[in-house]
Amino acid sequence: EYRKLLMGEPRGHYEMFGAIIVSPDIESCDFACIFIHNEGYATMCGDAVISLMRYAMKKGLVKNVTLPETQVNIQCPCGPVTAYVTYDGQSTGAVRFQSVPCFVFQTDLTLEVPSYGQITVDIVYGGAFYAIVSAGQYCLDIRESKVSDLRAAADATTDILRKQLELSHPETEGVSFVYGTILTDGNDDYSEEITDTMCVYAEKQVDRSPCGSGTSSRIALQYFKNKVKVNQSRTFRGPSGDVFTAKVVKEVNCGKYRAVVTEVKGHGYFCGNSTFTLEENDVTGRGFLLQ
Ligand SMILES: O=C(O)[C@H]1NCC[C@@H]1O
C-alpha cells in the first residue's frame, strides 16, 4: 500500500525498486522494516536494518536509549530481528543485528545451468533463501571478472533453481522461494582474511554491500560445513568494497532443521533526505512507462 502511494499501480519498471517502511509498535516490536520490491513481494533486508537503526536514533524514534549500545526489536518479513546500535550519548556508530534461525536447506546440489554446464550449489536460508556458489565454478574471478559477467552467471543459476527447486520453510510463510544467488571467492575456511561475496537478488539486482541476509546465510553455511565455530568472526566484502563482520551466536532449531542465530555487523551513513509529493492532479507523478 505504501509503495502504491509513492509510485502508483505497477506499470513497468521503476527506478525506485523498493521502499522500506518504518513503523512503530508492530506485534510487540519497536519497528517494522520491510523491503517491498517492485514486483509486489516483501523480503528481509539486513542492509536496511543497519541503516534504519542510525536513522531511528537520530529522529528520536527509539524509546529506551542506553549506552554504549541501544537495543531495538525489528519486525521483518522473515520474523523478529534484534538490532543493537552503538551510541555514546551523542553519536551513533556501527549496528549489529541477530538473525532469525538460519539453516542449510540442501548442500552440494548439482544443476545443469544453461551456458555454464554443471554447477554445484548450497541452498541456505538466512532470512531469505539463497544459492551459494564459488565464482570459480563459472571460470570467473570475483575480484577480477566484470560485474556483468558475474551477474549473468548468478542470474542463470537463480533462474534454473526457481524452475526446478521446490523450497519450503518449516515455520515462516511467504519466504519459500529462491531470492538470489551469492557468488563467493570460495574462501570458506576460517581465516582473519577478508572473503569476497557478491549477492545477485530479486530480479538481477546486484547488492553493492555484502548483503545482510546473504552474510547470515554464508556464515551459517560455513558453520554447518565445520569451517567456523560459534563466536568466530569473519569479514565479508561486497562489490563496492564495504565490509560486514559476522559470526554464529548459538545453535537453535527451526522445524526439523538444525539452525543457528547469526550476528551481522556493519555501518550505514546518511547521504541525504528527500520528501516525495504527489499532487492530486499530477498524472505523470503516478509513474509512466516509455516503450
Ligand atoms: O541486506 C539484505 O538482506 C538485502 N540486500 C539485498 C538483498 C537483501 O534483501
From TrEMBL:
EC numbers listed for it are 4.2.1.77
Q: Where are the annotated coiled coils located?
A: none
Kindly give the Pfam families that the UniProt entry links to this protein: Pro_racemase (PF05544)
One GO term in the molecular function aspect is: trans-L-3-hydroxyproline dehydratase activity
Quote the InterPro entries the UniProt record gives. Pro_racemase_fam (IPR008794)
Write down the chemical reaction(s) this protein catalyses. trans-3-hydroxy-L-proline = 1-pyrroline-2-carboxylate + H2O
Entry similarity comment = Belongs to the proline racemase family.
Q: What is this protein called?
A: trans-L-3-hydroxyproline dehydratase
